[in-house]
Amino acid sequence: MTYCKRCVYPQITVNLNLDEDGICSSCRSFEKFEKLTPGYWVERKKRFEKIIKETSQKNTSNYDCIIPVSGGKDSYFQAHKIATEYGLKPLLVTYHGNNYLPEGDYDRDRMRHVFNADHLVFGPSVEVLKKLNRLCFRKMGDMNWHAHCGISTYAIQIAVKFNIPLIIWGEVIWDTAGMFDPEDFVEFSARLRHEHALRGYEWSDLINDPRDPLTEKDLLWAKYPSDEEIIKVGVRGLYIGNFFKWDPNAHTKLVKKLYGWKESKKPFERTYRRMSNLDDRYENGLHDYLKYLKFGYGRASDHASKDIRLGYMNRKTGVEMVKKYDHVIPSDLYYWLNYVGMKEKEFWKIANSFRDPRVWRKNKKGEWEKDNIWDEEK
Amino acid sequence: MKKKRLIPIVLLRNGWVVQSKGFHEYKNLGNPFMSVKRLSEWASDELIYLDITRDGEYDLRRDDLRDPNRHDILEIIEDVSKMACMPITFGGRIRTIQDIEKRLFRGADKISINTQALREPSFITNAAKEFGAQCIVVSIDAKLENGKYIVMAEGGKVPTKYEASEWAKIVENYGAGEILINSIDRDGKKSGFEIPLLCSVADAVHIPVIGCGGAGAWEHFGEVFDETRVDAVAAANIFQHVDQSVHLAKKYLYDHNYPVRPPEFFEVS
Amino acid sequence: MTTNVCILDYGSGNVRSVYNMMSQIVSQVTISNAAQDVRSATHLILPGVGAFGASMEKIQKKLPLKVLKEEIFTKKKPFLGICVGMQVLAETGHEFGEHKGLGWIEGTVRKLNSGNLPLPHMGWNEVTIQKQSPILKRFPHNPDFYFVHSYVFEVKHDKDIVGTTLYHENFCSVLFRGNIFGVQFHPEKSQKVGKILLENFIHI
């Protein structure tokens, strides 16, 4: 396995590309953002303001935009920009997948206390969620598919229903691979959602499973609107990270200070960060562990790579973080097994079937092993 | 009245659809066919699908996706053809008559050759005789050097002795049915098309010419139609950045009275 | 009788796209040149790209012409010729020398007079509906279809011409006589309107 020379991503990182110099596409995209002078950011801010003005002119509803929020640090930053700095009236929309940590509940519910915004929280029936947890784990090794779907679908349904033409997203969440450059000004699209959030699966692939039967009516929230419906309202999904410099550590400081945002009381088991993913206990836990089982890298690799680029840590420390955290089996495994009523033996049987042979092999003792970044020097 | 064509280009590299920036930086965007499905749903006029793989395998490096991970270009062509109810030109790594035959059999309507045409111009004639001239597109990459547009070979790296308009006439005489002219200088820059290059080629031949390289805004397409005689404009990266991109581009052109098909949507089963 | 489309395979051109689009419309579609498939089909399609002469040669070699004629002229089965598949219906073709066509519709195939416009005629162009016919129902005013050709069928009798297209000259883009249809353009490449046309054909 080869690794990026700058950050700690392995070559197999989802959607990643290593160039001739051994630098990954994610580092290259970041490089381009870093090269943007203050002058460029001023231009980008103007471009954002131009779009706000244009959409408000054809907006017939009472909300200036939708902000899909989980209640996390990014949500607060987005709401801060739109509601506080620009004085617009957003409709906050949350998909509630029933996996919130207590701090996450607090931060989510607090939003309409600290921002002048209305807040719509939507959650599918828990019985449906449990079925999706089990079904998607069996089918694609991902119990959190429902969340990727809910987050990337529900807000757009609401935009269409309420005639709100603008949706303000934060970071290009699945662009950890550096698919796009600053000058692309990429926007949210059905293809990105379908391929990268949902792995090519849609609600129609998940109905009538014999073990966890679901009907069309169970998945109404999962249906993406048609091109015609979207064009009729003129819905656009902008990523605020394209217009304002994106720095999660700085955002956390800001939203803690201004709005009393709370990070996790306990450290996470699989990463050194405390301010990510309070809306879903499995994002840093079991769901991320499955990523490790599949591709041999986890959240610590993601966070360390980002922080190396931002200058908060050097590569040596990053490698140490990967060594310390990537392989850890999280205790929320047992929480999840209890939640969905699955036995541990069945869990491991299914989980191990997703180990990618490009990464994993069995040694003479029959144990799973792989190349590791800290063995690079050897 | 015949319409001008707006043609999306999809670039394939090692089994990934990619963005190409300046012929040297590549960003993986997704699987080989999903982009094609969307372009089809936006009723694109045509599609150009170029395999720019230099070496190595076709592999999405994971097998947990809903759709099969294809390792063979011919399987990819077949998947893509099913998604597109519009004419498709396939290009890239075509060296022999059999290469062309295999691609046409899998669903390609036209094929595009670049390197092979430079190495062996008579290949154009043989291919046109076998499959019909309308099937053979010759793709030309050109770079401005000392005031002249020089044809570049080997993926835009090695200069040839030909000027673009000169080579265009030569390939027309050899029997090409269409020309795709690409400006290397403008590739990925988003600053507009290389108008003088497109003019020089379109004015030199009697076969249809597609102009490419530099699209950054819908207005740039309009400029090409205003200032050159090309039959079509093509672009790759720009159509991957926003949803319903082709529909929006067509709407811009149609609303500004350019001779294009009206924007619409099409259901791909 | 359930619809059963037979796409005639004589080794010419891209039958795959016709097949792909037809499969979205009906469930029973075959690509074949066997006499029994021609007999059991309810609708027949002759696709075609490439040169007139070369296509005629392959047609004569590979297709059961006697059976075809029977099914078309005696049994009156609906028949659709696409592009070169329409041109070969002519008496003669003048591409790369003079060649005999099937002679089912009077007229000759000759080079399109495109003036200063580029050849081949490649892209989307309007079909002006001159007369009504079963395959041209349900169309918006002057639909755009995808054309790619350098030769045209100069149909002798006006009554056979139901659609024309302008590309420097006005040429016949849709012909129709009884149960025989010919289209110069490619419906299988023409998205929405192409699908409507093929659906119309199936309902005959």
Automatic annotation (TrEMBL), chain A:
SUPFAM superfamilies: Adenine nucleotide alpha hydrolases-like. This is LPS biosynthesis protein. It comes from Candidatus Gottesmanbacteria bacterium RIFCSPHIGHO2_01_FULL_39_10. The lineage of its organism: Bacteria, Candidatus Gottesmaniibacteriota.
TrEMBL record, chain B:
Coiled coil: none annotated. The keyword Lyase applies. The keyword rRNA-binding does not apply. GO terms for molecular function: imidazoleglycerol-phosphate synthase activity; lyase activity. Pathway: Amino-acid biosynthesis; L-histidine biosynthesis; L-histidine from 5-phospho-alpha-D-ribose 1-diphosphate: step 5/9. Keywords: Amino-acid biosynthesis, Histidine biosynthesis, Lyase. It catalyses: 5-[(5-phospho-1-deoxy-D-ribulos-1-ylimino)methylamino]-1-(5-phospho-beta-D-ribosyl)imidazole-4-carboxamide + L-glutamine = D-erythro-1-(imidazol-4-yl)glycerol 3-phosphate + 5-amino-1-(5-phospho-beta-D-ribosyl)imidazole-4-carboxamide + L-glutamate + H(+). GO terms for biological process: L-histidine biosynthetic process. SUPFAM superfamilies: Ribulose-phoshate binding barrel. Belongs to the HisA/HisF family. Heterodimer of HisH and HisF. This is imidazole glycerol-phosphate synthase.
TrEMBL record, chain C:
Its main location: cytoplasm. The active site is at 83 (nucleophile), 186, 188. Keywords: Amino-acid biosynthesis, Cytoplasm, Glutamine amidotransferase, Histidine biosynthesis, Hydrolase, Lyase, Transferase. It is found in: Cytoplasm. Pathway: Amino-acid biosynthesis; L-histidine biosynthesis; L-histidine from 5-phospho-alpha-D-ribose 1-diphosphate: step 5/9. CDD domains: GATase1_IGP_Synthase (cd01748). GO terms for molecular function: glutaminase activity; imidazoleglycerol-phosphate synthase activity; lyase activity. The keyword Lyase applies. One of its GO terms (biological process) is L-histidine biosynthetic process. Residues 7-201 form the Glutamine amidotransferase domain. It comes from the Bacteria. Its EC number is 4.3.2.10, 3.5.1.2. The keyword Transmembrane does not apply. One of its GO terms (cellular component) is cytoplasm. InterPro entries: Class_I_gatase-like, GATASE, Imidazole-glycPsynth_HisH. PROSITE patterns: GATASE_TYPE_1 (PS51273). It catalyses: L-glutamine + H2O = L-glutamate + NH4(+); 5-[(5-phospho-1-deoxy-D-ribulos-1-ylimino)methylamino]-1-(5-phospho-beta-D-ribosyl)imidazole-4-carboxamide + L-glutamine = D-erythro-1-(imidazol-4-yl)glycerol 3-phosphate + 5-amino-1-(5-phospho-beta-D-ribosyl)imidazole-4-carboxamide + L-glutamate + H(+). IGPS catalyzes the conversion of PRFAR and glutamine to IGP, AICAR and glutamate. The HisH subunit catalyzes the hydrolysis of glutamine to glutamate and ammonia as part of the synthesis of IGP and AICAR. The resulting ammonia molecule is channeled to the active site of HisF. This is Imidazole glycerol phosphate synthase subunit HisH. It comes from Candidatus Gottesmanbacteria bacterium RIFCSPHIGHO2_01_FULL_39_10. The gene is hisH.
